[in-house]
Write a structure and sequence with these properties.
The complex is a heterodimer of chains A (284) and B (258).
Chain A lengths: L1 H37 L1 H28 L9 H17 L7 H8 L1 H6 L6 H30 L7 H26 L9 H14 L11 H8 L8 H8 L4 H37 L1
Helix pairs in contact in A: 1-6, 2-3, 2-6, 3-6, 3-10, 7-10, 7-11
Chain B lengths: L1 H15 L3 H27 L8 H35 L2 H6 L4 H6 L8 H17 L6 H27 L8 H11 L11 H10 L2 H12 L5 H27 L7
Helix pairs in contact in B: 2-3, 2-6, 3-6, 3-7, 3-10, 7-10, 7-11
The chains are: A mainly alpha (284), B mainly alpha (258).
Protein backbone atom coordinates (compact mmCIF):
# COMPACT_ATOMS: atom_id res chain seq x y z
CA UNK A 1 0.00 0.00 0.00
CA UNK A 2 2.59 2.47 1.11
CA UNK A 3 4.82 1.68 -1.80
CA UNK A 4 1.96 2.32 -4.14
CA UNK A 5 1.21 5.62 -2.47
CA UNK A 6 4.77 6.84 -2.82
CA UNK A 7 4.80 5.68 -6.40
CA UNK A 8 1.84 7.89 -7.12
CA UNK A 9 3.07 10.82 -5.10
CA UNK A 10 6.69 10.78 -6.20
CA UNK A 11 6.47 12.03 -9.82
CA UNK A 12 4.93 15.35 -8.89
CA UNK A 13 7.12 15.68 -5.79
CA UNK A 14 10.20 14.89 -7.81
CA UNK A 15 9.10 17.31 -10.49
CA UNK A 16 8.61 20.06 -7.94
CA UNK A 17 12.00 19.39 -6.44
CA UNK A 18 13.68 19.42 -9.80
CA UNK A 19 12.02 22.70 -10.63
CA UNK A 20 13.15 24.34 -7.41
CA UNK A 21 16.71 23.08 -8.00
CA UNK A 22 16.65 24.59 -11.47
CA UNK A 23 15.41 27.87 -10.04
CA UNK A 24 18.12 27.83 -7.39
CA UNK A 25 20.84 27.23 -9.98
CA UNK A 26 19.39 29.87 -12.26
CA UNK A 27 19.58 32.45 -9.49
CA UNK A 28 23.05 31.43 -8.30
CA UNK A 29 24.41 31.56 -11.83
CA UNK A 30 22.83 34.95 -12.55
CA UNK A 31 24.16 36.48 -9.35
CA UNK A 32 27.66 35.19 -9.97
CA UNK A 33 27.65 36.42 -13.59
CA UNK A 34 26.76 39.92 -12.46
CA UNK A 35 29.32 39.81 -9.67
CA UNK A 36 32.19 38.61 -11.84
CA UNK A 37 31.54 41.09 -14.64
CA UNK A 38 32.29 43.82 -12.13
CA UNK A 39 35.77 42.40 -11.66
CA UNK A 40 36.64 42.41 -15.34
CA UNK A 41 40.13 43.83 -14.88
CA UNK A 42 40.98 41.46 -12.06
CA UNK A 43 39.67 38.52 -14.09
CA UNK A 44 41.75 39.57 -17.08
CA UNK A 45 44.98 39.82 -15.08
CA UNK A 46 44.25 36.40 -13.71
CA UNK A 47 43.59 34.91 -17.13
CA UNK A 48 46.65 36.50 -18.73
CA UNK A 49 48.89 35.26 -15.92
CA UNK A 50 47.44 31.83 -16.51
CA UNK A 51 48.11 31.82 -20.24
CA UNK A 52 51.87 31.71 -19.60
CA UNK A 53 51.67 28.09 -18.52
CA UNK A 54 50.33 26.61 -21.79
CA UNK A 55 52.59 28.90 -23.83
CA UNK A 56 55.60 27.40 -22.04
CA UNK A 57 54.43 23.85 -22.82
CA UNK A 58 53.55 24.82 -26.37
CA UNK A 59 56.95 26.33 -27.03
CA UNK A 60 58.85 23.43 -25.46
CA UNK A 61 56.95 20.68 -27.28
CA UNK A 62 56.80 22.38 -30.64
CA UNK A 63 60.53 23.09 -30.42
CA UNK A 64 61.12 19.38 -29.85
CA UNK A 65 58.74 18.47 -32.68
CA UNK A 66 60.69 20.74 -35.04
CA UNK A 67 64.01 19.30 -33.92
CA UNK A 68 62.66 15.79 -34.53
CA UNK A 69 61.90 16.67 -38.15
CA UNK A 70 58.41 18.17 -37.87
CA UNK A 71 56.33 15.85 -35.72
CA UNK A 72 56.44 14.31 -32.28
CA UNK A 73 54.13 11.36 -31.66
CA UNK A 74 51.90 12.53 -34.52
CA UNK A 75 51.77 16.12 -33.27
CA UNK A 76 52.97 18.89 -35.56
CA UNK A 77 53.75 22.34 -34.07
CA UNK A 78 50.41 23.54 -35.48
CA UNK A 79 48.54 20.70 -33.78
CA UNK A 80 50.35 21.44 -30.51
CA UNK A 81 49.27 25.06 -30.93
CA UNK A 82 45.63 23.97 -31.29
CA UNK A 83 45.99 21.67 -28.28
CA UNK A 84 47.34 24.34 -25.96
CA UNK A 85 44.99 27.08 -27.14
CA UNK A 86 41.96 24.89 -26.44
CA UNK A 87 43.78 24.06 -23.20
CA UNK A 88 43.32 27.66 -22.01
CA UNK A 89 39.53 27.35 -22.19
CA UNK A 90 39.48 23.90 -20.60
CA UNK A 91 41.76 25.14 -17.81
CA UNK A 92 39.37 27.99 -17.10
CA UNK A 93 36.46 25.55 -17.03
CA UNK A 94 38.47 23.54 -14.53
CA UNK A 95 38.81 26.27 -11.94
CA UNK A 96 36.61 25.29 -9.03
CA UNK A 97 36.56 25.86 -5.29
CA UNK A 98 40.15 25.39 -4.16
CA UNK A 99 40.88 22.77 -1.49
CA UNK A 100 43.07 25.40 0.20
CA UNK A 101 39.87 27.35 0.86
CA UNK A 102 38.49 24.80 3.29
CA UNK A 103 40.74 25.81 6.14
CA UNK A 104 39.35 29.33 6.01
CA UNK A 105 35.79 28.09 5.69
CA UNK A 106 36.16 25.98 8.79
CA UNK A 107 38.17 28.50 10.80
CA UNK A 108 36.08 31.54 9.96
CA UNK A 109 32.82 29.77 10.53
CA UNK A 110 31.33 30.48 7.11
CA UNK A 111 30.58 26.79 6.99
CA UNK A 112 28.25 27.04 9.97
CA UNK A 113 26.05 29.47 8.08
CA UNK A 114 25.96 27.12 5.11
CA UNK A 115 25.00 24.21 7.28
CA UNK A 116 21.94 26.08 8.45
CA UNK A 117 20.60 26.13 4.89
CA UNK A 118 18.27 23.37 3.77
CA UNK A 119 20.39 22.34 0.77
CA UNK A 120 23.74 20.62 0.55
CA UNK A 121 26.42 23.36 0.39
CA UNK A 122 27.99 21.96 -2.77
CA UNK A 123 25.05 23.32 -4.75
CA UNK A 124 26.09 26.87 -3.89
CA UNK A 125 29.66 26.23 -5.03
CA UNK A 126 28.55 24.55 -8.24
CA UNK A 127 26.15 27.35 -9.05
CA UNK A 128 28.60 30.14 -8.23
CA UNK A 129 31.46 28.73 -10.28
CA UNK A 130 29.15 27.79 -13.16
CA UNK A 131 28.11 31.43 -13.42
CA UNK A 132 31.73 32.55 -13.31
CA UNK A 133 32.44 30.16 -16.20
CA UNK A 134 29.96 32.02 -18.39
CA UNK A 135 31.90 35.24 -17.77
CA UNK A 136 35.20 33.45 -18.34
CA UNK A 137 34.07 32.00 -21.67
CA UNK A 138 33.07 35.45 -22.92
CA UNK A 139 36.33 37.00 -21.75
CA UNK A 140 38.35 34.14 -23.19
CA UNK A 141 37.34 34.84 -26.79
CA UNK A 142 39.70 37.82 -27.37
CA UNK A 143 42.58 35.96 -25.68
CA UNK A 144 41.97 32.96 -27.92
CA UNK A 145 41.87 35.23 -30.96
CA UNK A 146 45.25 36.70 -30.04
CA UNK A 147 46.73 33.24 -29.51
CA UNK A 148 45.32 32.07 -32.87
CA UNK A 149 46.99 34.97 -34.57
CA UNK A 150 50.31 34.42 -32.77
CA UNK A 151 50.61 30.65 -33.11
CA UNK A 152 48.62 29.73 -36.24
CA UNK A 153 47.04 26.49 -34.98
CA UNK A 154 45.59 23.72 -37.11
CA UNK A 155 42.04 23.19 -35.96
CA UNK A 156 39.37 21.52 -38.12
CA UNK A 157 36.82 19.81 -35.85
CA UNK A 158 33.86 17.82 -37.22
CA UNK A 159 30.39 18.91 -36.04
CA UNK A 160 30.24 15.89 -33.69
CA UNK A 161 33.53 16.94 -32.14
CA UNK A 162 32.23 20.44 -31.46
CA UNK A 163 29.06 19.05 -29.89
CA UNK A 164 30.93 16.58 -27.70
CA UNK A 165 33.40 19.29 -26.68
CA UNK A 166 30.58 21.60 -25.60
CA UNK A 167 29.26 18.86 -23.32
CA UNK A 168 32.65 17.57 -22.20
CA UNK A 169 33.90 20.88 -20.78
CA UNK A 170 30.95 20.90 -18.40
CA UNK A 171 31.55 17.24 -17.57
CA UNK A 172 35.14 18.15 -16.77
CA UNK A 173 33.89 21.00 -14.59
CA UNK A 174 31.70 18.64 -12.57
CA UNK A 175 34.37 15.95 -12.17
CA UNK A 176 36.96 18.43 -10.98
CA UNK A 177 34.47 20.13 -8.66
CA UNK A 178 33.76 16.84 -6.93
CA UNK A 179 37.42 15.79 -6.85
CA UNK A 180 38.61 18.99 -5.25
CA UNK A 181 35.73 19.01 -2.83
CA UNK A 182 36.68 15.51 -1.71
CA UNK A 183 40.31 16.57 -1.41
CA UNK A 184 39.40 19.75 0.44
CA UNK A 185 37.28 17.90 2.94
CA UNK A 186 40.44 16.21 4.25
CA UNK A 187 40.85 19.50 6.12
CA UNK A 188 38.16 18.31 8.51
CA UNK A 189 40.51 15.57 9.74
CA UNK A 190 43.81 17.44 9.70
CA UNK A 191 44.88 20.99 8.91
CA UNK A 192 48.36 20.05 7.68
CA UNK A 193 47.11 19.50 4.19
CA UNK A 194 49.09 21.75 1.87
CA UNK A 195 51.78 19.18 1.04
CA UNK A 196 49.08 16.60 0.26
CA UNK A 197 47.33 19.09 -2.00
CA UNK A 198 50.58 19.92 -3.79
CA UNK A 199 51.26 16.24 -4.38
CA UNK A 200 47.75 15.80 -5.76
CA UNK A 201 48.20 18.73 -8.14
CA UNK A 202 51.58 17.39 -9.26
CA UNK A 203 50.04 13.99 -10.08
CA UNK A 204 47.20 15.73 -11.87
CA UNK A 205 49.59 17.90 -13.89
CA UNK A 206 51.50 14.87 -15.14
CA UNK A 207 48.65 12.42 -15.69
CA UNK A 208 45.82 14.60 -17.00
CA UNK A 209 47.05 15.88 -20.33
CA UNK A 210 47.65 19.30 -18.80
CA UNK A 211 51.42 19.12 -19.26
CA UNK A 212 51.48 17.14 -22.48
CA UNK A 213 48.95 15.24 -24.64
CA UNK A 214 48.25 11.82 -23.11
CA UNK A 215 49.61 9.91 -26.11
CA UNK A 216 53.10 11.35 -25.54
CA UNK A 217 53.34 9.87 -22.05
CA UNK A 218 55.24 6.61 -21.58
CA UNK A 219 53.11 3.46 -21.89
CA UNK A 220 53.00 2.71 -18.15
CA UNK A 221 51.92 6.24 -17.31
CA UNK A 222 49.05 6.00 -19.79
CA UNK A 223 47.95 2.73 -18.20
CA UNK A 224 48.12 4.31 -14.76
CA UNK A 225 46.11 7.30 -15.98
CA UNK A 226 43.34 4.99 -17.17
CA UNK A 227 42.57 4.17 -13.55
CA UNK A 228 42.45 7.83 -12.55
CA UNK A 229 39.89 10.55 -13.28
CA UNK A 230 42.41 13.21 -14.32
CA UNK A 231 42.50 12.69 -18.08
CA UNK A 232 38.73 13.18 -18.36
CA UNK A 233 39.09 16.72 -17.01
CA UNK A 234 41.92 17.89 -19.29
CA UNK A 235 43.12 15.60 -22.05
CA UNK A 236 39.75 14.30 -23.16
CA UNK A 237 37.89 17.61 -23.64
CA UNK A 238 40.89 19.09 -25.47
CA UNK A 239 41.41 16.10 -27.74
CA UNK A 240 37.66 15.95 -28.37
CA UNK A 241 37.93 19.26 -30.19
CA UNK A 242 41.49 19.13 -31.51
CA UNK A 243 41.62 15.49 -32.57
CA UNK A 244 42.70 13.13 -33.87
CA UNK A 245 39.81 11.21 -32.35
CA UNK A 246 37.19 8.75 -33.65
CA UNK A 247 33.45 9.01 -32.99
CA UNK A 248 33.70 5.88 -30.88
CA UNK A 249 36.40 7.40 -28.69
CA UNK A 250 34.27 10.51 -28.29
CA UNK A 251 31.35 8.54 -26.88
CA UNK A 252 33.54 6.32 -24.72
CA UNK A 253 34.97 9.52 -23.29
CA UNK A 254 31.55 10.97 -22.50
CA UNK A 255 30.56 7.69 -20.84
CA UNK A 256 33.73 7.72 -18.75
CA UNK A 257 32.99 11.28 -17.70
CA UNK A 258 29.46 10.28 -16.71
CA UNK A 259 30.87 7.40 -14.65
CA UNK A 260 33.30 9.64 -12.80
CA UNK A 261 30.61 12.24 -12.18
CA UNK A 262 28.41 9.62 -10.51
CA UNK A 263 31.36 8.29 -8.53
CA UNK A 264 32.37 11.80 -7.49
CA UNK A 265 28.86 12.77 -6.43
CA UNK A 266 28.38 9.64 -4.34
CA UNK A 267 31.83 9.92 -2.73
CA UNK A 268 31.31 13.60 -1.97
CA UNK A 269 27.98 12.83 -0.37
CA UNK A 270 29.36 9.99 1.77
CA UNK A 271 32.49 11.82 2.92
CA UNK A 272 30.58 15.01 3.60
CA UNK A 273 28.23 13.16 5.96
CA UNK A 274 31.13 11.87 8.04
CA UNK A 275 33.04 15.16 7.87
CA UNK A 276 30.11 17.21 9.08
CA UNK A 277 29.65 14.95 12.09
CA UNK A 278 33.27 15.65 12.98
CA UNK A 279 32.81 19.37 12.47
CA UNK A 280 29.88 19.61 14.84
CA UNK A 281 31.88 17.63 17.35
CA UNK A 282 34.74 20.13 17.22
CA UNK A 283 32.64 23.24 17.59
CA UNK A 284 30.13 21.73 19.98
CA UNK B 1 72.62 47.67 7.75
CA UNK B 2 72.21 47.17 11.51
CA UNK B 3 68.53 47.81 11.04
CA UNK B 4 68.30 45.09 8.39
CA UNK B 5 70.07 42.68 10.70
CA UNK B 6 67.69 43.42 13.57
CA UNK B 7 64.62 42.96 11.41
CA UNK B 8 66.04 39.74 10.01
CA UNK B 9 66.67 38.41 13.51
CA UNK B 10 63.16 39.18 14.69
CA UNK B 11 61.66 37.74 11.52
CA UNK B 12 63.67 34.55 11.85
CA UNK B 13 62.79 34.16 15.51
CA UNK B 14 59.13 34.59 14.67
CA UNK B 15 59.34 31.85 12.08
CA UNK B 16 61.28 29.51 14.34
CA UNK B 17 58.20 29.24 16.52
CA UNK B 18 56.49 27.29 13.77
CA UNK B 19 58.86 24.44 13.23
CA UNK B 20 56.32 22.05 11.76
CA UNK B 21 55.93 24.48 8.88
CA UNK B 22 59.52 23.73 7.97
CA UNK B 23 58.70 20.12 7.16
CA UNK B 24 55.60 21.10 5.21
CA UNK B 25 57.56 23.63 3.20
CA UNK B 26 60.38 21.14 2.63
CA UNK B 27 57.87 18.57 1.41
CA UNK B 28 56.39 21.16 -0.94
CA UNK B 29 59.80 22.09 -2.31
CA UNK B 30 60.53 18.43 -2.90
CA UNK B 31 57.21 17.83 -4.66
CA UNK B 32 57.86 20.84 -6.89
CA UNK B 33 61.37 19.77 -7.80
CA UNK B 34 60.29 16.15 -8.37
CA UNK B 35 57.62 17.37 -10.78
CA UNK B 36 60.22 19.48 -12.57
CA UNK B 37 62.60 16.52 -12.84
CA UNK B 38 59.87 14.28 -14.26
CA UNK B 39 59.02 16.95 -16.85
CA UNK B 40 62.70 17.18 -17.84
CA UNK B 41 62.87 13.39 -18.09
CA UNK B 42 59.85 13.48 -20.42
CA UNK B 43 61.45 16.18 -22.54
CA UNK B 44 64.73 14.30 -22.87
CA UNK B 45 62.91 11.07 -23.61
CA UNK B 46 62.02 12.70 -26.88
CA UNK B 47 65.09 14.72 -27.71
CA UNK B 48 68.77 15.00 -26.82
CA UNK B 49 68.88 18.77 -26.62
CA UNK B 50 66.40 21.63 -26.43
CA UNK B 51 67.48 24.51 -28.68
CA UNK B 52 71.09 23.70 -27.92
CA UNK B 53 70.65 23.18 -24.17
CA UNK B 54 71.66 19.76 -22.91
CA UNK B 55 70.10 17.92 -20.01
CA UNK B 56 72.63 18.96 -17.33
CA UNK B 57 72.42 22.55 -18.53
CA UNK B 58 68.64 22.54 -18.21
CA UNK B 59 69.01 20.99 -14.76
CA UNK B 60 71.05 24.04 -13.81
CA UNK B 61 68.36 26.35 -15.21
CA UNK B 62 65.76 24.54 -13.11
CA UNK B 63 67.97 24.80 -10.04
CA UNK B 64 68.49 28.53 -10.53
CA UNK B 65 64.76 28.97 -11.14
CA UNK B 66 64.04 27.23 -7.81
CA UNK B 67 66.72 29.17 -5.89
CA UNK B 68 65.46 32.49 -7.25
CA UNK B 69 61.88 31.46 -6.45
CA UNK B 70 63.00 30.74 -2.88
CA UNK B 71 64.65 34.15 -2.55
CA UNK B 72 61.53 35.84 -3.88
CA UNK B 73 59.36 33.89 -1.45
CA UNK B 74 61.76 34.53 1.46
CA UNK B 75 61.98 38.28 1.30
CA UNK B 76 60.52 39.99 -1.78
CA UNK B 77 56.99 38.62 -1.92
CA UNK B 78 56.14 38.89 1.82
CA UNK B 79 57.36 42.49 2.04
CA UNK B 80 55.57 43.59 -1.10
CA UNK B 81 52.40 41.86 0.09
CA UNK B 82 52.71 43.67 3.42
CA UNK B 83 53.23 47.01 1.69
CA UNK B 84 50.16 46.47 -0.42
CA UNK B 85 47.92 45.62 2.49
CA UNK B 86 49.38 48.54 4.46
CA UNK B 87 48.36 50.90 1.68
CA UNK B 88 44.88 49.40 1.53
CA UNK B 89 44.36 49.57 5.30
CA UNK B 90 45.98 52.96 5.78
CA UNK B 91 48.63 51.61 8.16
CA UNK B 92 51.31 52.71 5.72
CA UNK B 93 51.27 56.07 7.51
CA UNK B 94 53.14 54.47 10.42
CA UNK B 95 56.01 53.47 8.15
CA UNK B 96 56.40 57.04 6.95
CA UNK B 97 56.56 58.44 10.46
CA UNK B 98 59.51 56.24 11.43
CA UNK B 99 62.96 57.85 11.45
CA UNK B 100 64.47 55.48 8.89
CA UNK B 101 64.49 55.36 5.13
CA UNK B 102 60.99 54.35 4.13
CA UNK B 103 62.02 52.27 1.14
CA UNK B 104 64.51 50.28 3.18
CA UNK B 105 61.96 49.80 5.93
CA UNK B 106 59.23 48.52 3.61
CA UNK B 107 61.68 46.06 2.07
CA UNK B 108 62.90 44.31 5.22
CA UNK B 109 59.93 43.96 7.50
CA UNK B 110 58.98 40.38 6.83
CA UNK B 111 60.83 37.19 6.21
CA UNK B 112 59.48 33.74 5.44
CA UNK B 113 62.36 31.69 6.67
CA UNK B 114 61.07 28.32 5.53
CA UNK B 115 60.89 29.40 1.91
CA UNK B 116 64.66 29.06 2.02
CA UNK B 117 64.09 25.31 1.61
CA UNK B 118 63.69 26.16 -2.07
CA UNK B 119 67.13 27.76 -2.04
CA UNK B 120 68.65 24.61 -0.53
CA UNK B 121 66.79 22.19 -2.80
CA UNK B 122 67.53 24.33 -5.86
CA UNK B 123 71.18 24.56 -4.81
CA UNK B 124 71.44 20.78 -4.68
CA UNK B 125 70.00 20.55 -8.20
CA UNK B 126 72.49 23.14 -9.46
CA UNK B 127 75.43 21.23 -7.99
CA UNK B 128 74.06 17.99 -9.39
CA UNK B 129 73.64 19.51 -12.85
CA UNK B 130 77.06 21.16 -12.72
CA UNK B 131 78.62 17.78 -11.85
CA UNK B 132 77.24 16.32 -15.09
CA UNK B 133 78.53 19.08 -17.39
CA UNK B 134 81.05 18.05 -20.03
CA UNK B 135 83.59 20.53 -18.78
CA UNK B 136 84.06 21.45 -15.13
CA UNK B 137 82.95 24.82 -13.81
CA UNK B 138 85.84 27.24 -13.41
CA UNK B 139 86.16 29.71 -10.55
CA UNK B 140 85.54 32.64 -12.90
CA UNK B 141 82.22 31.10 -13.92
CA UNK B 142 81.35 30.45 -10.29
CA UNK B 143 82.03 34.06 -9.30
CA UNK B 144 80.16 35.42 -12.32
CA UNK B 145 77.23 33.17 -11.50
CA UNK B 146 76.98 34.32 -7.87
CA UNK B 147 77.29 37.95 -8.89
CA UNK B 148 74.65 37.69 -11.59
CA UNK B 149 72.32 35.84 -9.25
CA UNK B 150 72.44 38.82 -6.89
CA UNK B 151 71.97 41.21 -9.82
CA UNK B 152 68.97 39.16 -10.95
CA UNK B 153 67.44 39.23 -7.47
CA UNK B 154 67.87 43.01 -7.37
CA UNK B 155 66.04 43.34 -10.69
CA UNK B 156 63.11 41.24 -9.53
CA UNK B 157 62.94 43.32 -6.36
CA UNK B 158 62.93 46.57 -8.36
CA UNK B 159 60.32 45.28 -10.75
CA UNK B 160 58.04 44.17 -7.96
CA UNK B 161 58.46 47.36 -5.95
CA UNK B 162 57.70 49.44 -9.06
CA UNK B 163 54.47 47.51 -9.52
CA UNK B 164 53.50 47.63 -5.88
CA UNK B 165 54.20 51.35 -5.70
CA UNK B 166 51.48 51.63 -8.31
CA UNK B 167 49.13 50.70 -5.48
CA UNK B 168 49.47 54.30 -4.22
CA UNK B 169 47.19 55.19 -7.09
CA UNK B 170 45.38 51.97 -7.93
CA UNK B 171 44.55 50.27 -4.69
CA UNK B 172 43.53 46.92 -6.15
CA UNK B 173 46.84 45.48 -7.29
CA UNK B 174 46.70 41.94 -5.87
CA UNK B 175 46.15 40.55 -9.32
CA UNK B 176 49.55 41.88 -10.33
CA UNK B 177 51.09 39.31 -8.04
CA UNK B 178 49.02 36.63 -9.70
CA UNK B 179 50.28 37.87 -13.04
CA UNK B 180 53.88 37.84 -11.88
CA UNK B 181 53.64 34.30 -10.51
CA UNK B 182 52.25 33.21 -13.85
CA UNK B 183 54.97 34.93 -15.84
CA UNK B 184 57.75 33.76 -13.53
CA UNK B 185 57.03 30.15 -14.51
CA UNK B 186 58.41 30.95 -17.94
CA UNK B 187 61.84 31.10 -16.28
CA UNK B 188 61.86 27.31 -15.92
CA UNK B 189 63.31 27.19 -19.41
CA UNK B 190 66.01 29.37 -20.96
CA UNK B 191 64.28 32.36 -22.52
CA UNK B 192 66.08 31.68 -25.80
CA UNK B 193 63.52 29.00 -26.67
CA UNK B 194 60.62 31.46 -26.72
CA UNK B 195 59.49 33.40 -29.79
CA UNK B 196 61.05 36.86 -30.19
CA UNK B 197 58.21 39.02 -28.85
CA UNK B 198 57.95 36.92 -25.72
CA UNK B 199 61.72 36.90 -25.22
CA UNK B 200 61.84 40.70 -25.28
CA UNK B 201 58.96 40.82 -22.78
CA UNK B 202 60.66 38.36 -20.45
CA UNK B 203 63.90 40.31 -20.63
CA UNK B 204 63.01 43.96 -20.29
CA UNK B 205 59.36 44.10 -19.22
CA UNK B 206 59.61 41.37 -16.58
CA UNK B 207 63.32 40.73 -15.94
CA UNK B 208 63.03 36.94 -15.70
CA UNK B 209 65.68 36.40 -18.34
CA UNK B 210 68.19 38.30 -16.23
CA UNK B 211 67.11 36.60 -13.03
CA UNK B 212 67.28 32.99 -14.18
CA UNK B 213 68.65 32.49 -17.67
CA UNK B 214 71.65 34.82 -17.44
CA UNK B 215 73.08 33.34 -14.20
CA UNK B 216 72.56 29.86 -15.66
CA UNK B 217 74.42 30.89 -18.79
CA UNK B 218 77.27 32.11 -16.61
CA UNK B 219 77.55 28.76 -14.93
CA UNK B 220 77.39 26.76 -18.16
CA UNK B 221 79.95 28.97 -19.87
CA UNK B 222 77.61 30.32 -22.56
CA UNK B 223 77.56 33.89 -21.33
CA UNK B 224 79.15 36.68 -23.36
CA UNK B 225 80.85 39.56 -21.55
CA UNK B 226 78.54 42.01 -23.31
CA UNK B 227 75.43 40.39 -21.87
CA UNK B 228 76.92 40.35 -18.35
CA UNK B 229 77.68 44.06 -18.59
CA UNK B 230 74.18 44.73 -19.94
CA UNK B 231 72.71 42.88 -16.94
CA UNK B 232 74.64 45.01 -14.47
CA UNK B 233 73.82 48.25 -16.30
CA UNK B 234 70.14 47.38 -16.55
CA UNK B 235 70.03 46.49 -12.84
CA UNK B 236 71.61 49.83 -11.94
CA UNK B 237 69.11 51.60 -14.16
CA UNK B 238 66.21 49.78 -12.50
CA UNK B 239 67.54 50.61 -9.04
CA UNK B 240 67.71 54.31 -9.82
CA UNK B 241 64.31 54.26 -11.50
CA UNK B 242 62.74 52.48 -8.55
CA UNK B 243 64.31 54.92 -6.11
CA UNK B 244 63.03 57.94 -8.05
CA UNK B 245 59.58 56.46 -8.47
CA UNK B 246 59.41 55.60 -4.76
CA UNK B 247 60.35 59.18 -3.78
CA UNK B 248 57.78 60.55 -6.20
CA UNK B 249 55.08 58.20 -4.91
CA UNK B 250 55.75 58.94 -1.25
CA UNK B 251 55.70 62.67 -1.97
CA UNK B 252 52.28 62.25 -3.55
CA UNK B 253 50.94 59.86 -0.96
CA UNK B 254 47.98 61.43 0.71
CA UNK B 255 47.34 58.74 3.29
CA UNK B 256 44.11 56.99 4.10
CA UNK B 257 43.12 59.65 6.59
CA UNK B 258 43.38 62.58 4.23
Amino acid sequence: MTSQATAVASPSAAEGRLRSYLRLYGTLIRVSIMEQFQYRAANYFYMIGMVTEPIIYLVVWSTIAREQGGTLGGYTPELFAAYYIVWTLVRNMNIVFTPFGWEERIREGTLSAQLARPLHPIHYDLGFFAGWKVVVIVMWIPIAAALFWLFQPELHPRPTQIAVFAVAIWGAYLIRSFLLWILGMVTFWTTRVSALFEAFFAAELLLSGRLVPMTLLPEWAQTLANFLPFQWTFGFPITALVGPITDEELFVGLAAQAGWIVFGAVATWLIWRRAVRLYTAVSG
Amino acid sequence: MRLTWQFLRVGVMNELQYRANFFIQLLQSLVAIATGLIVLALVFDNTSDLSGWTRPQLLIVMGVFTVMGGIIGFVIEPNMGRLMSDIQLGTFDYVLTKPADSQLLTSIREFRLWRLTDVVVGGVVIVWGAGQLDRPVGWLEGVGFSLLLVVGGVMIYCFWLLLTTGAFWFVRMEMMQELFTGLYRAGQYPVGIYPGWLRVMLTFLVPIAFAVTVPSEALTGRLTVGLAVLAVVFAAFLLVLTRLFWRFAVAHYSGASA
